[in-house]
Amino acid sequence: MTSDGPTCSDCGQPMKSGGFVLSEREDDGRRICRVLWRCAGRHVWWRWADRPGEPLEVCPVPGLFR
C-alpha cells in the first residue's frame, strides 16, 4: 500500500494528516493554516499549508492534537 503523506523523521513510519490549525506567522504577520501530520509512534509534525515544499517542523504543543 502506498501513501501520499510524508514519513516520520523520528521513527520512519508513514504519517497521516491530522487537519489544520490556524496560526499567525511571525515572518509576515499573516494568519495562515498549518497542516498537522502524525504517525503511529505519536510524533506530531506540522508545516505551513501555503508552503508545501518546506520541511516539516516538530509541533511544539503535540498534546493539544492527540
How would you describe this protein?
This protein is about 0% helix and about 40% strand. The protein has strands at about 15-25, 30-40, 45-50, 55-60. The protein has a four-stranded antiparallel beta sheet with strand order 1-2-3-4, with no helix packed on it. It is globular and about 35 Å long. About 15% of the residues are buried.
Short description:
By secondary structure, the protein is an all-beta fold.
Helical content, roughly? Answer: under 10%
* Spatial order of strands in the largest sheet: 1-2-3-4
Structural category: mainly beta
Number of strands: 4
Q: Main β-sheet: number of strands, strand sense, barrel status? A: 4 strands, antiparallel
Distance between the termini: 25 Å
Average pLDDT metric: 90
Tell me the strand percentage band.
35-45%
The oligomeric status of these chains comes to single chain
Rough outline? globular
**Rg:** 12 Å
Tags for this model:
four-stranded antiparallel β-sheet, mainly beta, 66 residues, 4 strands, single chain, globular
Fold blueprint:
Elements: E1 15-24, E2 31-39, E3 44-48, E4 57-58
Antiparallel strand pairs: 1-2, 2-3, 3-4
